[in-house]
Prior knowledge:
- This protein has 461 residues and is an all-alpha fold.
- The protein has 21 helices and no strands.
- Helix 2 packs parallel to helix 14 and helix 6 packs antiparallel against helix 7.
- About 3% of the residues have low confidence.
Amino acid sequence: MEIFLAFVGFFSLIFIIYLLLKDKTSPAIAFIIVSGVVGIVFCLLDMYANFGIGSFLKERVQTKYFLNIQNPIFDFKALSFFIKSGISSVSSTAVLFIFSILFFGIINETGLFNKIINALLKTSKNNVYSICVLTVIIAVVAHLDGSGASSFLIAIPALMPIYEKLGMQKTTLMTILAVSLGVMNLLPWGGPTVRAATIISAEANDIWLRLIPIQITGLICALIIALILARMEVKKGAGLINLNETYSVEIGVHNQDKKFIINIILLIGVVILLVLNIFPGYFPFMMGFCLVLFINYPNLELAQKLINKYAKSAMMMATTLFGAGILIGVFDASGIMKVMAMFLLHIMPESALSLIPLIVGLTAVPMALIFCTDSYFFGIMPIVVGITSVLGIDSYSIAIIMIVARNCATFISPVVPAALLGCGLGNVSIKEHIKKSFFWVWGVSIVCLFVGFLLGIIHFF
């Protein structure tokens, strides 16, 4: 029975990864259909062929649902319980993502980020070093909404004319942005953090609070890389042309010059509430969204248009998370994931198992070139968490290792649409971008993991 359940589990996850990598369907559909079919087949086998799945899971895994049932059967009642458990585990994360997208989308419409970026651009003038450092700062500000696409759309049009005037390489701009955005993507409403929190049934904000020292380390690395690349640009002759024009980012926004101070206070207030961790992670965004909409757009018709504008991207991610909830319910809440982990423990040498966290951390950046975010976190992470949990390694530690290492490489990956968008805007081929940025990104990843290990945030052994 162990071999059968492990085989079905591995085959299902590999099939889901295949569907995602080949763009055969959306993540939510892949998760729901594959998991649903497997769950129903298990019910039919146990109910009508006396397959003994429920009894095996009670005996070997001690699944919560079966534990107090004398003659456990993997029936539709059991499947219903597992599905509800999976959905419950992702609900708070889905709410966080929906309202964070709406909050940052609306606050971006007010022109807040544009004002900050324009003020920064006016202070940079023609100094190559200040431009490279400014690129990091703009990336940080632009990525507060957690969207890679919008970050590139804000940063590249604002900075590209200056880079061209100063004779700086476009690949330098892309490298600095890729490193900076990858580190900023550790935010609790960033896609990878949300996905990892979903897998280990944790609050994304709880993970982020542990990540803050690592994120600060990553941003320091981004600034150091920006200065190194600036030095390389100066040696090649960049910065010899004076800028006689003031460049600013122009994006279609409403209400651009009103209530700037109030919006800044709102933004800072939401971040402070997240750090204090007094409320569930989604509540500050719910309050912030309501306040920023009411204060800036009291007209109901205009407010509804803005909500509709950002609701699409919010709901797309929410459906993915709820689809993942079905996957988690069928494979994790049922105990099948533990069976898969135990099977691997039996066939792998102990020396190799103890190195899994370290191997995952060191190989995440190269793997990012092959695996998209969904396939990495929803396909690979559950297996890694299952194996390491049996070895007594904290699931938070594994989540942080995989989030940090994978995040750094997000914006050099050819299977991440935002990275391709950035290359298009920057007029740089994805091949050039990877060639220029890969080792910088990988280095930041390793430094961040090492600092996390030294501080006791993560454990490799």
